[in-house]
Amino acid sequence: MPVLNAPVTGRRAIVFFDIDGTLLDHRKRLPDSAKEAIQALQGLGHEVALATGRSPFMLQRVAEELGIDSYIGFNGQYVVMKGERIYTNPFRKEDLDELSRFAAANGHPLVYLNADSMRSSMTHHPYVEECITSLEYAHPPYDPEYFLGRSIYQTMLFCEEPEDQQYRERFAGLSFVRWHPFSLDVLPGGGSKASGIAQLIHRLGFDPEEAFAFGDNLNDLEMLQYVGHGIAMGNAPDCVKQAAKYVTADVDRHGIARGLQMVGLLP
């Protein structure tokens, strides 16, 4: 629910920002008002971090533009504090073996991601093309054995919603989070942005009540509920808004700047 007149806090806080649909608008652009608001936040001495489903190689442009060197990547599986990797939670090889066989039997592509790159289990697929293009990347190269001998922190599974239930039932130890009508993020068991945030705030000496987080999608639910001050974007679905303590404006209507004012972090 919105709180319109929260007092400006005098305490140092840590603020987490999702990227797609939160910092970046629907055209994958960073609004000037969001950039200026984050710079003001940093100028006041608050800690700022990213919390995203993206791989480290997919978030660097935003991180560099905003001068941010701490982040939660892969929906919590990869945590970097001030440029230093402090926590990782890769898949077990056995889980990827079984998931790969099952997806291949069903004709569903997978994209394997590590910190540096991504590869596809199929040479080309229209669902992969549409989803990866929406992130402004090309269809990943083909390498169905990319996960062998590498640390994989997240996979993307490409199928429509009625088809994903069989995966949820068969792989109860993994986490499945839909982010597109054609795709889900698949995470190691117990993985979430909330678990990654817990690692970072512990190292930085913050309490969850001193943490703020902005998000707009289903992979933000645990994060918004974990921190003391969860802020949903106006473009978020209703279930995400209901999980948050506050709701700000849409990403393309100065949602970041207005949200930071709403919770009292900016005057």
Order of helices and strands: EHEHEEEHEEHEHEEHEHEHEH
Decide which structural class fits the backbone: alpha/beta
Mean pLDDT: 94
Radius of gyration: 18 Å
Number of helices: 9
Tell me the number of structural domains: 2
- Estimated share of beta-strand residues: 15-25%
Specify the CATH architecture of the largest domain: 3-Layer(aba) Sandwich
The description of the largest β-sheet is: 8 strands, mixed
Distance between the termini: 20 Å
CATH level-4 homologous superfamily of the largest domain: HAD superfamily/HAD-like
Instruction: Show unreliable segments.
Output: 1-9
InterPro entries: Cof, HAD-like_sf, HAD-SF_hydro_IIB, HAD_sf
Pfam family, one: Hydrolase_3
Protein name: Phosphatase
Spell out the blueprint of helices and strands.
Blueprint: E1 14-17, H1 32-43, E2 47-51, H2 56-66, E3 71-73, E4 78-81, E5 84-88, H3 93-105, E6 110-113, E7 118-120, H4 126-134, E8 154-158, H5 165-170, E9 175-180, E10 183-187, H6 193-204, E11 211-215, H7 221-226, E12 229-232, H8 238-243, E13 246-247, H9 255-262
